Amino acid sequence: MEYEEAESYLLEIPKFTKKNTLDDTRAFLRKLGCPGEDKKIIHVAGTNGKGSVCAYLSSVFRKAGYRVGMFTSPHLVTMRERFRIDGEMISKQEFLSCFEQVKAAVSGGLSENPAYHPTFFEMLFFMAMLYFEQNDVQIVILETGLGGRLDATNSVGKKELCIITEIGYDHMEYLGDTIEQIAGEKAGILQKNVPVVFADNRAESSGVIKKRAEMLGCPAFSVSKHDVRNLEFHKNFIDFSYDTRYYGYIRCSLSAHAPYQAENAALALAALDVLAERLPVGSEALLEGMREMRWEARMEEIFPDVYVDGAHNADGIQAFLDAVHRSGSGRKLLLFSAVCDKQYEEMIRLLTSDRTFEGIFVTELNNTRGLSLKALQEAFAKAGSDVCGFEDTGSALTALLSAKQPGDTVYIAGSLYLAGEVKSHIKRIQIERSC
Fold first, then answer.
1. Average pLDDT of 169-197?
2. What is the pLDDT of residues 249-268, one digit of tens each?
3. Does the structure show a pLDDT above 70 at 224?
4. How far apart are CA 117 and CA 107, in angstroms?
5. Do residues 268 and 306 both lie within one domain?
6. Which residue segment(s) compose the domain that 261 sits in?
7. HSE of 75 in the Cβ direction (CA atoms, 13 Å)?
8. pLDDT attached to residue 432
9. 3-class secondary structure per residue, the chain
10. DSSP conformational letter for 223
11. Whose CB among 65, 313, 365, 382 lies 3.0–4.6 Å from 370's, allowing a Cys bridge?
């Protein structure tokens, strides 16, 4: 089998299987030989900021000399992005090898469920655990795919630490209609006596997490926006201060543009503080790892004064806007798209409420969940804004960059699918120019 065939098989899975129970997921992990059971596992859930927190932790531990596996989702351009060891994504050969091992184990299903077949996400999770096991990583950082309580990643055994990032309204059809319900699902990753670090900016979610932690005997450590002190913005980096028990008062620099990354970094610092005696990290490695972390599509500058951000829900868009208001002095132009099962009307309301953008371009996504061009145009018209519409991302991006004048700043946001399509389009252009 070739890599492309494995990728096609994985993409076809949603058509012939359904969500499995956590008991089935655990049983299949046992069938695979319990990969990862001897690793130091850090489990991360939340609505916004999960991937960035994972990336900060991976960067610091790597600087400290640990071998670190990281499993995140979704991907932007290739599935291989989800599997990383020491920051490098899995090769096509290793991806294929892990896929074939999982697929072979699927044959015959489970003794208690002969018809069992992993979902798309479960397949990738199993592949990741095999990959990390076979490459002798010491630390495994797992990002939940959806929710937490019933997520495939929650099937792992002993965890070293749980982290819950900012919680907001997203995936309500699966997680519930209130912040408390959503927080309850995220807090489902907590494990008896295992410490938890959590974002403490919403009383509704914090109350649920604290109650769950108390019930399970989990030492709980909160991090709020107020813990990020002396925040300073520079052209290509952010400085802030954070007070820790183990490392003392830290002055930290990030290669980032967005204020929300300081809050994500603070969660990572709190996690490192909690783990300091079990997984020690020197102060120099800590500061270098934080400064050198790069995470795609989080206010990422892809060209001079052109930023792509993965904001895809109301809270994410508000955080994105906070960053936009701190950057650029000329006109601000926006490329936006969204999927139909997100709060796109609320996102559009936020984006148009103070006329931040002098030009707004919209496009359809090459995805069955994507909003139609008509729906996007109607939603912006309802919000009182005119937009330029395009049927595909490539055309929209070309028009947007052509409209950009010296001094203008361009922003791209609304969906990680959009971020992925933009990056794929740019990659194709670069390949064509190099030929």
1. 93
2. 999 999 998 999 999 999 99
3. yes
4. 9
5. no
6. 3-292
7. 17
8. 62
9. CCHHHHHHHHHHHHHCCCCCCHHHHHHHHHHCCCCCCCCEEEEEECCECHHHHHHHHHHHHHHCCCCEEEECCCCCCCHHHHEEECCEECCHHHHHHHHHHHHHHHCCCECCECCCCCCHHHHHHHHHHHHHHHCCCCEEEEECCCCCCCCHHHHCCCCCEEEECECCCCCHHHHCCCHHHHHHHHHHHCCCCCCEEEECCCHHHHHHHHHHHHHHCCCEEEECHHHCEEEEECCCCEEEEEECCCCCEEEEEECCCCHHHHHHHHHHHHHHHHCCCCCCCCHHHHHHHHHHCCCCCCCEEEECCEEECCCCCHHHHHHHHHHHCCCCCCCEEEEECCECCCCHHHHHHHHHCCCCCCEEEEECCCCCCECCHHHHHHHHHHCCCCCEEECCHHHHHHHHHHHCCCCCEEEEECCHHHHHHHHHHHHHHHHHHHC
10. E
11. 365
| Model pLDDT, residue 422 | 96
Residues whose CB falls within 8 Å of the CB of residue 428, separated by 6 or more in sequence, listed in order: none
| 40-45/68-71 β-pairing | unpaired
For residue 248, the one-letter residue type is G
Three-state SS at 42:
strand
DSSP β-bridge partners for residue 161? 42
* Helix spans in 110-258 (H): 120-134, 172-175, 179-186, 203-216
* Pair (179, 251) in one structural domain: yes
CA distance 165 to 200: 9
Tokens standing for residue 272: 């490192």
CB 45 within 8 A of CB 186: yes
- 249 and 129 in a common domain: yes
- What pLDDT digit, counting tens, does each position of 349-367 carry? 999 998 999 999 999 999 8
Q: Which two tokens stand for residue 54?
A: 């994972």
Say if CB 121 and CB 83 are below 8 A apart.
no
Partners of 412 in the beta sheet? 308, 335
Residue 153: CATH number of its domain: 3.40.1190.10
Q: Are residues 142 and 230 in the same domain?
A: yes
Domain count, the chain: 2
What's the rounded Cα separation, in Å, for the pair 233 and 254?
10
Burial of 407 (0-12, 13-18, 19+ CB in 10 A): exposed
Q: Are 171 and 147 in contact (CB under 8 A)?
A: yes
Phi and psi torsions of 343, nearest 5°: -80, 60
How far apart (Å, rounded) are the C-alpha atoms in residues 383 and 317? 16
